[in-house]
Design the sequence.
């Protein structure tokens, strides 16, 4: 199955003029494709290779109740024996069939993505661990982005045993590491709540310049451990010592040698954004973070009426 996607023949998509959806159906238009999805993906590849930024798929969850059919035309005698047979809970090979069905499709989907693209896949607990293993193989572990918990049924499934399941998974992988951007601009309400200072350049908040994560420090970020100098009267910060300045190092209260989040070159270049405050008898250095262009990352728990199953059935 490793190279099954390569031997799937290229097929031509035949435009059908019906339902008044399009007078001139074209691969360059919005498409609704009816037919085998493996053939459809291969047919899209010549035109859309490396051009699709976002892909969402909703494969069979393989619960045993869907009664899906394995139909891939393969040469393996074992797999040919699977053809046209319903996959249900009594099928002892249903997980094998599911993995063999998914692998070539995932490989083709990866080929369609742009370098800064991502794939989102809905799944539940039946196959989530096998899906992760397949995606690690196809996309690489380094491209795993998130396992989002989606609250689908707040009341819980009444047919479940032991626990009433309320959630599903949304697995996210990127095409290339460090290329995809998931954050979005903060809303006006978020800005109003987060940015409590303002000057001539707009609203801002103060963030501590010292790295607040203790796993980073002088021991592994020596280039970010250096003195800054504070003017006590004005609270101004400089990389250069003056006669009345106070030396400040990125030390924790217990003496642990931490590090700054900016290097010395950036501190010198953007010294106007640095402010020193005397707190608890010690000088602390902060940087201004302005609201314009501020973004926030999505969280890994999604809940709300827009995600609930019964809303999708109305």
Sequence:
């Amino acid at each position: 199955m490793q190279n099954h996607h390569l031997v799937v023949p290229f097929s031509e998509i035949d435009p059908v003029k019906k339902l008044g959806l399009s007078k001139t159906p074209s691969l360059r238009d919005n498409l609704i494709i009816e037919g085998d999805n493996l053939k459809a993906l291969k047919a899209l590849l010549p035109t859309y290779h490396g051009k699709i930024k976002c892909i969402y798929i909703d494969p069979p969850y393989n619960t045993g109740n869907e009664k899906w059919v394995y139909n891939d035309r393969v040469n393996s005698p074992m797999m040919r024996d699977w053809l046209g047979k319903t996959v249900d809970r009594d099928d002892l090979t249903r997980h094998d069939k599911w993995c063999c069905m998914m692998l070539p499709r995932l490989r083709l989907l990866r080929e369609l993505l742009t370098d800064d693209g991502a794939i989102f896949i809905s799944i539940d607990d039946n196959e989530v661990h096998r899906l992760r293993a397949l995606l690690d193989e196809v996309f690489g572990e380094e491209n795993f982005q998130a396992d989002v918990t989606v609250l689908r049924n707040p009341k819980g499934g009444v047919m479940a045993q032991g626990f009433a399941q309320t959630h599903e998974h949304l697995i996210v992988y990127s095409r290339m590491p460090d290329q995809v951007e998931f954050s979005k601009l903060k809303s006006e309400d978020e800005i109003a709540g987060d940015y409590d200072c303002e000057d001539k350049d707009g609203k801002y908040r103060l963030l501590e310049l010292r790295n607040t994560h203790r796993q980073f420090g002088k021991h592994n970020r020596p280039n970010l451990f250096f003195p800054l100098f504070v003017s006590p009267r004005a609270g101004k910060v400089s990389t250069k010592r003056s006669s009345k300045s106070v030396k400040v190092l990125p030390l924790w209260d217990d003496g642990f040698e931490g590090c700054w989040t900016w290097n010395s070159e950036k501190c010198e270049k953007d010294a106007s954004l640095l402010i020193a405050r005397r707190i608890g008898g010690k000088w602390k250095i902060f940087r201004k973070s302005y609201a314009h262009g501020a973004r926030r990352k999505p969280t890994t728990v999604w809940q709300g009426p827009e995600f609930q199953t019964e809303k999708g059935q109305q």
